[in-house]
Amino acid sequence: MGKVSLEGMEFYARHGYYEEERVIGNKYSVDVTLDLDFSEAASDDKLEGTVNYEKVYEIVQNVMSIDANLLEHLAGKMIKALKENFSQINHVQVRISKYNPPIKGLCHKATVELEG
User: Fold this and answer.
1) Which of 18, 55, 76, 108 would you call most buried, defined as having the most Cβ atoms within 10 angstroms of its Cβ?
2) Which residue among 27, 46, 80, 98 is the active-site one?
3) What average pLDDT does the chain have?
4) Element housing 114 (H / E)
5) CB count, 10 Å around CB of 62?
């Protein structure tokens, strides 16, 4: 067993509970950690023994491109899509951050973390 992580993927998207967030948009950061057995890739140096990082990024990008109200919903959709595309994944951890969330005060980012 091992872990593969893609960290600091950045997107500009129009997610949010408030209509203004969906009009203006915002910057988001996504980290994904996948638990899987990649012993074959470690010994044979073949992509088939692990996950294709480019495909993982594309899945996250596709989810981020569809407007949603909640970060929690986006994280759930990412977990489902990643598991559907890579049967060798045993566990997924997704962390999504929204920069400068619309609260009445200073806050660098709001973050949601979901595992599945």
Assistant:
1) 76
2) 98
3) 96
4) strand 109-115
5) 12
Q: Tens digit of pLDDT for each residue in 54-96?
A: 999 999 999 999 999 999 999 999 999 999 999 999 999 999 9
Q: Is 27 a catalytic residue?
A: no
What is the C-alpha separation between 52 and 19, in angstroms, rounded? 36
Q: What is the DSSP letter of 7?
A: E
User: What does the block give as tokens for 81?
Assistant: 């899509």
Residue 84, C-beta contacts closer than 8 angstroms, at least 6 positions apart: none
CB 28 within 8 A of CB 48: no
Report residue 96: phi and psi, to 5°.
-120, 130
The three-state (H, E, C) secondary structure of 61-96, written as one string: HHHHCCCCCCHHHHHHHHHHHHHHHCCCEEEEEEEE
DSSP states of 27-72 as a string? EEEEEEEEEE--HHHHHH--GGGS--HHHHHHHHHHHHTS--S-HH
13 close to 67: Cβ distance less than 8 angstroms? yes
